[in-house]
TrEMBL record:
This is ABC transporter substrate-binding protein. One of its GO terms (biological process) is peptide transport. GO terms for molecular function: peptide transmembrane transporter activity. It comes from Ornithinibacillus sp. 4-3. Keywords: Signal. Residues 1-29 form the signal peptide. It holds the Pfam family SBP_bac_5.
Amino acid sequence: MRLINRKGILFLLLASLLLVVACSSNSSKDEDESTNENEESDEEITTGGILNIAMDAPPPTLDQPISTAAAARDASRLIFESLVTTDLEYNPVPMLAEKIETEDNQTYTFHLRQGVKFHNGKEMTAEDVVASMNRWMEKSTITGNIFTGATWTAKDDHTVVLELEVASALALDTLASSKQGAAIMPREIIESAPVEGVDEYIGTGPFKFVEWKQDQYIHYEKYEDYQPVDLETNGLSGKREALVDEIYIHIVTDPSTRVTGLQTGEYDIAYGIPYDNYDQIQNDANLETILEPGANNLLGLNNVEGPASDLKMRQVINTALDMDAIMMAAYPNKDFYWLDSGYMDVNIKNWASTAGSEYYNQNDPEKAKQMLEEMGYDGEEFRIMATRDYGQLYNLAVVIQEQLKQIGMNATLELYDWPTMLELRDSDTSAWDAFITASTTVSTPPQLLALSPTWGGGVNDDSVGEAIRAIETAPTIEEAQKLWDDLQLYAWEELLPVIPLGGNSTLYAHHEKVKGITNNTGLIFWNVYISE
């Protein structure tokens, strides 16, 4: 039996049964030694006050399971919590569950924490969890094959049983994902929710929802009856405290307004600081910056039709590209980007892989020219979709176009606004040959859009789907990791559905009086206080 509790992850070795499964890397020793980035000194903590945050885009909703938007993720996790969350290394850790038991990675028993109250004063019970998890399986796009046909049952008021159709070592990792989080809500809120999403935001988190004035601000206040976990904070896991009385997330889409508001003290924290303002903020004694790993930049290729549907052409392009020059054009400081051949975020320790790295950043235009000649390339147009809506993505496209022109390709840029580009990407493969995008962090490989047959000129290879299913149903995390290494190598050697360009950091800034701020797939606003 595997037992996971809030004191760490323990293995019970039974005489006839030994399974080393999903959370094996998260030992109690690891937890004891873990520390948060941006860890503060031992100065006295000041409580109270109002925290004003300038967010660069409005969240489409605060209903966690139905949105993949980063703004929705950050704005909603003040309110909602899940059975399982993640530590700094993205290992799953119990949150609203006291402990989790499994003998076979197919039947999971969740023992719930008792005395946890929703913001409406009702105590959380197994019925609320079952209703929430059934809705998450229905609404979320990240559940994949793992939760197909799965059932959730309330064994008693504080015990819930999950039955999977097929055993999976990835079940807890998926449950813990910040993307389309498995938020626990009162059963009656779910039962009365309209199709488009819940209209009452009631969770168990350290802050409760007060008001949403569309396109202006979202207002929260401290939840006085919040029950924190009595463990050291580690990423999204451990102790959460509301140290300020109120939080306002202001929707401020203009970057210069965010920067100016930060400098004048109108805002305490600001999202989406332009890279050009980095030195200015660094030189301001009242301001501090945070660089958080933000996304993996990709050159998407049309695997369905056109010149890029030929693997040889995709290999030509990959051979030609100079990744350092490409990334530097978009992120003009080596503090802002890194080169990485992995499909998964390098910070996801269980899944970061170097398989196929020898094919990355070849930067060999002469060889690429020779390969083009051997193909008999006759100057066919190669259309790269790009947008000016995101300056970094546009800059990536410009340099890639130039590098392809230098090897003799007739590469052109097709410029669209961002929504139109996404629509064309997913609905009309005849309109383009490549596109530039950036994918945000996911917790497991099956969640990668880059390997989906339904995503932008998608993967035209049935063996990829079979490999994904094998990863999802692997009996141990170690076996799943090996299968993922094999699949990533196959993607580089035999497929090249996309070309990973490199990772970049997102730039945030805050006033120096704001203390305790940390980041883990977005900024975290509990445990944050304003010093006097």
